[in-house]
Amino acid sequence: MQVATNPDKYDQGKSEFSITAQGEINADVDGKKGLSNSDALLIQKFKLGLIDKF
Fold first, then answer.
1. What does the radius of gyration of the chain's CA atoms come to, in whole angstroms?
2. Residue 5, SS3?
3. What Å distances lie between residue 51 and 3, 11, 43, CA to CA?
4. How far apart are the first and last CA of the chain?
5. Residues 25-39, buried b or exposed e (16+ Cβ, 10 A)?
6. Phi, psi values for residue 14, rounded to 5°
7. CA 34 to CA 27: how far, in whole Å?
8. Cα–Cα distance between 39 and 52 in angstroms, integer?
9. Residue 17: its H or E element
């Protein structure tokens, strides 16, 4: 969730490490508008195989 905690560095267009518009769309998986810690948690659970879909 670097984009949320460090928007000056990671928000769109701020640096070479910035999230892209498509990246924001892809990362927003919790059904609520915008990126949040909930999205990050769901992605981590998916990567660990604890859930199989969003």
1. 12
2. helix
3. 24, 28, 9
4. 18
5. eebbbbeeeebeeeb
6. -80, -30
7. 9
8. 14
9. none
Residue carrying the six token digits 């990246």: 23
Amino acid, single-letter form, for residue 42: L
Q: What is the pLDDT of residue 1?
A: 61
| pLDDT tens per residue across span 2-17 | 666 676 776 777 777 7
Which segments in the chain show pLDDT lower than 50?
A: none
Look up residue 10 and give its amino acid. Answer: Y
Predicted confidence at residue 2, as pLDDT, reads 67
pLDDT at residue 15, as a whole number? 73
Cα 24 from chain centre: 6
The phi and psi torsions of 43 (rounded to 5 degrees) equal -65, -40
